Amino acid sequence: MDMNIEMDKNTATDSITSRLADARNDLGITQKDLASVTGISVKTIINIETKQHIPSLLYA
Question: Which InterPro entries match (predicted)?
Answer without folding.
Answer: Cro/C1-type_HTH, Lambda_DNA-bd_dom_sf
